[in-house]
Amino acid sequence: MKSFIISIVVSLVLIGCGNENKPVVSIFEGETHFENIRQLTFGGENAEAYFSHNAHKLIFQSTRDGLECDAIFTMNVDGTDVMMVSSGKGATSCSFIAPDDRSIIYASTHLEGDKCPPKPDMSHGYVWALYKSYDIFKADTDGSNLVRLTDTPGYDAEGVYSARGDKIIFTSVRTGDLELFLMDPDGSNVEQLTDIPGYDGGAFFSLDGEWICWRASRPQGEGLKDYMGLLQQGLIRPSKLEIYIMNLKDREPIQLTDNGAANFGPYFHPSGEKVIFVSNMDDPKKRNFDLFMVDIKTIEIERLTYNPTFDGFPMFSHDGKKLVFASNRNNSRPHETNIFIADWID
Asked: Cα–Cα distance between 27 and 327 in angstroms, integer?
């Protein structure tokens, strides 16, 4: 789903990856929670970088080295030892490392063919494509021993492990709407979590595994008709998404944002008391996305980044000392998106 969201900011052009050595990046005024921002990738389209449980590794998706669409890569947290762990066939998205560091999951379209799927039809306005050929796969950390976990008609993607590794949460259109589901790590015991009309996706667990956070649309009236009509064509319009949380015991959604903007990429602060997320709430017309954090109890929102282009896809290390995110900051040429890591100051 990253490649669709990134294009909210700008229509990305494939850029060759250089070897510029720019490890330390300036911090913008107002970014008081950051120290020692380091750039880990240099050129191309890189995003959705997520820590391993011990924060020694990152898994991310990237279009680079002549690839026509995203493949899955891993690297050390200092940017070294970059290795492609998907096949390079089809499109891939939404990768994550198991807490025991023995396996990875990601979504891929490769079973339908080696080529990248066609781009979405923009005659409908700005839309994402929901490729029906996306399924979720599990593999060893080097990409070997690939196993298919989902096998239902239509889109299955956006999967992540719980911190204990006992569950995977993912998004699927198997019921006719985009809903959240739980499954065991082997793909069994699938259980539906959401059932309200609209898109539910991009979910993550809290560290204790008791809560989830995610992005959702709740269209009504003509908006709902538009949503359902696009969904029948494998498309979705992502301009209005809000951030929600849910306790997995009572399973009652709690809405944290209500600004009518494109809010996405939520992730729990290790304390469980706040959720970091991405939004264009302060600059929707220019499509400038920044990182924000919302307090679960007070619903007060704090802006975290002030880069005039794009910051997104944040994730805290489990000890709360590091934050990894994707950004257009410090680009050597236009339209690049790179991975950055920063020391986090609470």
From this structure: 12
Strands 274-279, 264-268: parallel, antiparallel or unpaired by DSSP? antiparallel
Residue 237 vs residues 218, 224, 285, 308: alpha-carbon distances, Å: 12, 11, 16, 24
Report yes or no: 171 and 200 within 8 Å, Cβ to Cβ: yes
Which tokens hold the place of 157? 């993607």
> Could you read off the pLDDT of 272-287 as tens digits, one per residue?
999 999 999 998 776 7
Helix (H) or strand (E) holding 9: helix 2-9
Task: Calculate the CA 213 to chain-centre distance.
Answer: 12
83/211 Cα distance (integer angstroms): 32
What is the phi/psi pair of residue 111, to 5°? -70, -20
Which string of b and e fits 62-78 if b means at least 16 CB within 10 Å? bbbeebebbbbbbbebe
For residue range 116-152, what is the model confidence (pLDDT) as tens digits?
A: 999 887 787 888 889 999 999 999 999 999 999 999 9
Domains and CATH numbers, the chain: 2-344 (2.120.10.30)
DSSP letter assigned to residue 107:
E
Q: What pTM was computed for the model? A: 0.92
C-alpha 164/C-alpha 297 separation (Å) is: 25
Helices (H), 194-286: 222-232
For residue 346, the Cα-to-chain-centroid distance in whole angstroms is: 23
The first and second tokens of residue 104, run together, are: 């990875």
CA angle 70, 72, 78 (to 5 degrees): 115
Side-chain-side CA neighbours of 258 within 13 Å: the count stands at 5
Q: What whole-number distance in Å separates Cα of residue 180 and Cα of residue 178?
A: 7
